[in-house]
Fold this protein.
Amino acid sequence: MTGWRGLRVVVAGAGASGEAAARVLLRLGATVTVVDRAASTRTGALAAGGATIALGAQAPPAGTDLLVVSPGWRPDAPLLTAAAAAGVEVIGEVELAWRLRGPNPPPWLALTGTNGKTTTVRMLESMLRAAGGRAVATGNVGLPVVDAVTADPPYDVLAVELSSFQLHSAPSVRPAAAAILNLAPDHLDWHGDFAAYAAAKELIWAGEKTVAIGNADDPEVARRLAAAPGRQVSFTLAEPGPDQLGVRGGRLVDRAFGGGELAGAGEVRPAGPHNVANALAAAALARAHGLDPAAVAQGLRAFVPDPHRNEPVGDVAGVRYVDDSKATNPHAALASLASYDKVVWVAGGLLKGAPVDELVARVAGRLAGAVLLGADRAALVTAIARHAPDLPVVTVSRTDDGAMSEVVEAAAALARPGDTVLLAPAAASMDMFRDYKARGDAFVAAVRALADP
């Protein structure tokens, strides 16, 4: 960690990762300017710690040596384009963390994908801890990577979840092993098109010494895995071949790292084929790191899923209610819907340009009804009319705090005993809710009110 004292660094964004980056840079003696849109408790704390705060700045100060950008800042933001024009290097917090590693750094086991990242990285963390190592899930999961790499005492190994935004600005990161779970159109408003989005994801495999792990059942991932420069390992829900992990006789099996049987597929939580695939990805990363098969199995059994991920939240009058508010795009909603036989589907929100026609066509046979809400519900109404014209559909136009109660009551009226009312929105939440967690919480509260009026 040398060479940072006196370096003039701009940190773009004072969210969790930006604040962490600024704190570490100040501690290392850099001269730090923090740019954000508005003052906050974080900017106040950073100012008290010695940072200069430049609210709304459109260009870096003269003499800036480096700009560290927070995830989500678009590459065409005026501050970033001005920095590039001035010859200032622009990197992300993850790239900064990679450069801050000391001697004998802990290996990074990294993963990305359109859906399932947080569940998978938490599974991996549980496996690593079951083996007795000091390990932590970091990155897009919440803990900034700069905090993980500068922790004292140091971690033995890092389970690193990386978004396309983070990978876009992390050109030199080379994990020991890295997995891509799946690829489907997402964040196209940020990347411009699917090719650019997928190319950002592929950067996780850029290292020649990186064990590249990919989903053999996802054509987009499988095609790209074949071009990865390092060793290529895949996972599948079918019986595995050489250099694969898969499922045989209801058991997770490793034929890539000599592990044999690992655990029962029925032990995977949350339930559903997509989460079995996530477990296989986590197991592949753990086995690439040398974990014993017993630790993989123990970690899977000990894993407790985060809320709002295919989570059963109630059973009322013979109808099951499931909260998968984290299904924030059509690909995630498809995986969720495929886990149930007959569904009253609660969907809608901000689609961000993602198409829903194929999703509705593929799940139409499972649907017993649909209740639609949110800014882009009309796109879902149109797709259902095309592919399931006889399906009972209720649209909820209100956006106040009581909207979810109306939604759940409408879903209950459509459902019959044995059905599942599933919140799998296929869309982001910010049109009506603070985030997907708040949306899920509202759904859970409405289900509980239904059960205990």
